[in-house]
Amino acid sequence: MSITTTLISSHRDKMAQRAAQLIHEGRAKNFEQARRQACLELGLSSKEIGACTAEIEAAMAHYQHLFCPDFDEDLLKLRQKALALMLFFQQFEPYLVGSILKGNASKHSDINLLVYSDDPKIVEIFLLNQQIDYSSKERKTQYRQTDSPTIAFWFDQTEVHLQILPSVARHQYAKKNERANYRQLQQLIADCQSTQTLASEE
Question: Where does the Polymerase nucleotidyl transferase domain lie (predicted)?
Fold first, then answer.
């Protein structure tokens, strides 16, 4: 292994550790923001370091083990909030994606949902009828690498992001194992609660 390769590996480790800390402190909302901010603070080149998703996930798991005794409880609460939202938006066939589903979220993490409608305005009208204040912007998606509306609002002190995709995209999502519908999330919560109960009885 060359000196350059060793240095890059060391820098990636430092960046991942700092990125994990930023996410848990609520100073970064997602991996990409945490990576850029960590590189900036450490004086590293983000292009040289690369995406480092796996490294950040590993660093977060280590950080949670050391410094977050309430991690399981916080994650459960976020998943329960997501489940309530999915029931609320059931007409738009919602799926949960992101760190809360993967299990590497912090208590400051956003809830990220995919919802499906051929007319994004229908989702906005639904929110207006429910008197929910929201903001909207265009965001790049995996579906045909196009922009789609993303709606943001707050629910029970947690920020929520709804990414609106056309109905046909529901069957064409690139990473189906990285999303969960209502029943799948409900089962995941039940499994986690069962595991926690068994652990507390030991």
Answer: 94-127
The total number of residues written for the chain in this structure:
202
CATH number at residue 123: 3.30.460.10
The pTM is what?
A: 0.77
- The DSSP-derived string for 112-130 is EEEEE-SSHHHHHHHHHHT
How do residues 97-149 score in pLDDT, each as one tens digit?
988 998 888 888 899 999 999 999 999 999 999 999 999 988 766 555 567 89
DSSP-assigned states of every residue in 139-180: EE-SGGG-EEEEEEEEETTEEEEEEEE-GGGGG--S-GGGEE
Q: Is 11 in a helix, a strand, or coil?
A: helix
For tokens 């204040």, name the residue: 133
Residues 62 and 75 in one domain: no
